[in-house]
Amino acid sequence: MGVQRCKLPVQDLEIGMFVADLDRPWYETPFPIQGFHIRDQQELDQLIRHCRHVHVDVAEKRQDVAAESVAGPERQGSAGGKVLKLPAVKVRNPHHYEITRPLRKEVRDVQQVLDSVEKALDRVSETLSGGRSQVAVEAVTSVARTMAESVTRNPDALLWLSRVQSRDDYTWRHSLNISIWALLLGRQLGLDPDVLHKLSLGALLSQIGKARLPEGMLVFESDLSDEQWRTYCRYPETGARIAAESGLPRVVVNVIRYHRERHNGTGFPQKVTGEQIPLLAKLVGLVDYYESLIEPRDRRNQLTPAQAVSRLFDCRNSQFQEDLVEQFIQAVGVYPTGTIVELATSEVGVVVSHTPKRRLWPSVMVLTDAEKRPLKQGHVVDLARQNEETADASARIVDCKPVGYGGIDPSQYEVTGAAARSRSRWRLRGLFS
């Protein structure tokens, strides 16, 4: 497919065009990502207000925007292009969270949190493998609160360790990661600390219903037969029942029950829409989808974080509520902490932190030289500062890489730049290995 980039006055833009670049920095506009399809008149009006001209990609043939919006790691045919718009979520008396602890210090202590997660989820796994319908949730409840407290102090530390360390067992690793993504989104929304705790707990336990699925059904969802798919779609209800019988709060049970529902009614198991889906379940559903894009069970379908953000952006008001998508992008950036990127200098590094107002200029720990040879010691480059102070054209990201690119192992480096001590791998195998 041939693609050409051309410059157009904003008055000549049409719905469906792909805007690749603007005549001003992206961070000075309301658009949360770089590169998007124009979906409606509102976006056209915003472009006209903020720009004089833009660059658009013109392809010989382009897929329909609505069709692109439902593509993803989920089973084909389970989603549709129906659009549903709701007022933006407003949190009563939102908390404003400041970073109260440096990344270096928080990372040093948060390793113990991940170790506690492993032990807590191992206990749940052992309970479920024994066939019991109730689980001892005290340890998981405690570790969820500790995770929430860490994210309120510094939103990057827990995400950094989670993304750079190798771990076994896809299902529990997925549960951990979506819990952290959900906390970052909840923090962005200003949720009360106690609500953040319940959000973290619901995300950690969102997959427990899969323990009751028949053996061999934990595969890529699109590989399931129609009969298997109908069985698979019951796992959220099964998980909610286990959580309720274990005495967990109703709000946590509802996160588990509704996290696979979709904004426009194309989810499962109940196919409810919009305001019928509890807010915390909406958050977990959104980050669950995002995580399955960047770290899918089948790596052949893996997207880079930048590609996944673009996919999410296309899902606004169809699978996910528009303002929640945009808040998530504001929270994690186009290149979230732990993302492997290539700089204009041809060096490769990993994102260690970012500033919401500088979504395309995070701080990057450089791990290779321009020839892609690993450095003995990483060094951190603050792209935002370099661009603001020197307007250095080389201080920018030119490509986003998938997890595991080039065998690069960020866990071998401390965020201070020094070589790290070796990290033990997770040993979670149990039910879902």
The poorly predicted ranges are 60-72, 76-80, 417-433
CATH topology (fold) name of the largest domain: Hypothetical protein af1432
Run of helices and strands: EEEHEHHHHHHHHHHHHEEEEHE
What is the annotated CATH architecture of the largest domain? Orthogonal Bundle
Q: Give the CA-based shape.
A: globular
The largest pleated sheet is described as: 5 strands, antiparallel
Number of strands: 9
Question: Order of strands side by side in the largest beta sheet?
Answer: 8-7-6-5-9
Structure commentary:
The structure is a single chain. The chain is α+β, with helices and mostly antiparallel strands and 433 residues long. The chain folds into three domains: 3-62; 103-332, Hypothetical protein af1432; 340-412, no CATH class. Helix content is 39%, strand content 13%. It is built from 14 helices and nine strands. The strands form two sheets. Strands 8-7-6-5-9 form a five-stranded antiparallel sheet. Strands 1-4-2-3 form a four-stranded antiparallel sheet. α4 packs across α6 and α9 packs antiparallel against α10. The longest helix is centred in the first third of the chain and has 27 residues, at 103-129.
